Amino acid sequence: MGEFSKIMIPEGYKRALFLGTTGSGKTSLLCRIIGTQEIKNFPPVSTSKTTTCPTEFILDGGPVYQAEALTISREKARKLIDECIAKALEEAVAGSSDHLILQRLLYHPEQRFRLAYTLGVPASPPAEDDEDDGETDCGEMSALSESQRSGITNFLSRVLSQIKKLARDSTSSSQFLSDDIVKKIEERFRPFKKTGLPQTPDWPANIHLIAGGRDEFISQVRYLIGNDASLFGSLISPLIEKIRLSGPFAPRGESCSQLSVMDSEGLGHISSTATTLPVAITDHFSEFDSIVLVDNSKQPMQAATQAVIKASYLYGHEHKLILANTHFDQIHGANLPDSYAKKRHLTGSAENFLNTHKGKTSGRILLRLKRAMCEDALFFSRLNQEKDSKMTLKNLSKFLAALHRSRTRDFGILPQYIFNDLRKYLNRSSEIFHERWEGYLQTEHWTRVKALTRRFAHNCNAHELEYSNMRPLADLIESVQQEVSPLIESPASWSHQTRSEEEQDAAIRYVKQQLYNALRRFAYDSLYSHELEAWKFTDSLHGQGSASERNKNIGEILEREVHPNGIFVPAIAKVIYGVTGNTFQNSLPL
Question: In angstroms, what is the C-alpha Rg of the chain?
Answer without folding.
Answer: 25
